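Appendix B, example 12.
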Amino acid sequence: MVGILLVSHGAFGESLIHCASHVLGKRPLYLRQLGVTIHDDPEAILPVAVDLIRFLDQGQGVLVLTDIYGATPSNIASRILVPGRVEGIAGVNLPMLIRALTYRDSPLATVIEKALSGGVEGVTRMPLPVNA
């Protein structure tokens, strides 16, 4: 099973986990979040992220999802990536997380592919009502 770590601004990661748990009917195993606030020192957060990766890696690797590429959470996440073992995606949304959780028994590369497609396909313009 691929572990999943959300590194994001404030409580965004915990909110996504809460929503995903609601959709799936339970809180998924080996899914954690690391919320970063304006008061946090990135150097102090880094060892916490490394410990979470150690916990989450059950032998299939870890997918790190972060909110905004180039912001402090993604900069922290980029420092813990290990090609083929700990991979990262920026721009996390709920469809991306659900897709990653759904396919996490697949190889890490497949989970990445499915998460990316879920994130992109989950962003769509809703059709207008017929009588509008």
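The two ends are 46 Å apart (CA to CA). The longest helix spans residues 42-56.
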